[in-house]
Specification:
This protein is mostly beta strands. The chain has a single domain, classed as CheA-289, Domain 4 (OB fold (Dihydrolipoamide Acetyltransferase, E2P)), CATH 2.40.50. It has one helix at about 120-130, and strands at about 5-10, 15-20, 25-30, 45-50, 50-60, 75-80, 85-90, 90-100, 110, 115-120. It has a five-stranded mixed beta sheet, with no helix packed on it. A five-stranded mixed beta sheet has the order 3-6-7-5-4, with helices on one face. A hairpin with a 2-residue loop joins β6 and β7 (about 85-90).
Length: about 140
């Protein structure tokens, strides 16, 4: 018997991604982000939200486009796990969806007719950590 878990689905460059809802702290539309010099182009900056500091990155990092300029997304997905806080700026928000738990890390899951790839905050964080810093 298979079970399903709830995921938060969003779009980046016409591709769909999902993160377990337990990592999603908030979805905000009025986040003030302070740029930080000498960081990769996909790094939007830092933001202070409800007493906590968040690194904010362009979600293009998920599809390997770390050299892209800042995007003016309408929403920021605030993620929290372990000791990390991360803001992710996607192209579009799809919403909450149920995904089969049997093999959630499978390359693509079909969710409401959309091919969705499950990602983890840890994988996104590793992508950011592996970027070159400086101009």
């Amino acid at each position: 018997m298979s079970s399903a878990m709830e995921y938060f689905v969003f779009e980046v460059r016409e591709q769909y991604f999902a993160i377990e809802v337990r990592y999603v702290y908030r979805i905000v539309d009025d986040l003030v982000v302070t740029p930080v010099p000498l960081l990769p182009a996909c790094y939007e900056g830092m933001s202070y939200y409800r007493g906590e500091l968040f690194d904010v990155v362009n979600a293009d990092i998920i599809v390997g486009k770390e050299e892209e300029a800042s995007k003016q997304g309408l929403y920021v997905i605030l993620l929290k796990w372990d000791q990390h806080n991360l803001g992710l700026v996607p192209d579009h928000i799809v919403g909450l969806k149920w995904i089969n738990e049997e093999n959630p890390q499978e390359a693509n899951q079909m969710v409401d007719g959309l091919p969705v790839k499950v990602v983890t905050p840890e994988a996104i964080w590793r992508s950011i950590s592996g970027m070159d810093y400086g101009p």
